[in-house]
Design a protein that fits this description.
By secondary structure, this protein is of the alpha+beta class. The protein folds into 2 domains: 29 residues; 103 residues, Immunoglobulin-like, CATH 2.60.40.1240. A hairpin with a 2-residue loop joins strand 2 and strand 3. The radius of gyration is 23 Å and the shape is elongated.
């Protein structure tokens, strides 16, 4: 190949990389920062997608965190499956244990209980996350051992 052909190919590759970079910047500029997602507290009535959620209470003892919630707004067999408890360094799924465990949801609000095994998770900060479609809500829960 001649030098001129190689230079033209190099310029063309550079332009392709530049266009790809601009497209990526435009794509991520529309995303919200974590600071833009509000943090709710106990008893706040929150709409997450088509689901109404109220975190009624929180307690943690003996390596188990229990979150009492009221869910309603839509009939969904897996309506409560997207709850996660964020502890330092990890995200914990609900165990689904107990007679009053959250599971299927209905249009009428129902109280239920989420149980998480946190064992010896360091730190006292606990964040409850709920994802419904593309919507996400988070609640700051009391320090470990709080109610």
């Amino acid at each position: 190949m001649r030098t001129r052909t190689l230079l033209l190919l190099a310029v063309a590759c550079g332009l392709v990389i530049l266009v790809a970079g601009v497209l990526q910047l435009l794509r991520i500029s529309d995303q919200r920062d974590a600071e833009d997602v509000p943090v709710y507290g106990l008893a706040d009535d929150v709409e997450v997608g088509d689901m109404a959620v109220v975190v009624d209470g929180y307690d943690e003892a003996a390596g188990t965190a229990i979150v009492d919630v009221t869910l309603g707004g839509v009939d969904d067999v897996d309506g409560a499956s997207e709850f996660r408890l964020v502890v330092l360094g990890e995200s914990v799924e609900s165990t689904g244990a107990g007679d009053d465990a959250c599971g299927a949801t209905t249009i009428e609000p129902q109280a239920c209980r989420l149980t998480f095994v946190v064992d010896d998770a360091p730190g006292a900060g606990r964040i409850l996350l709920y994802r419904r479609g593309e919507d996400v809500a988070r609640w700051r829960l009391a320090a470990a051992g709080g109610s």
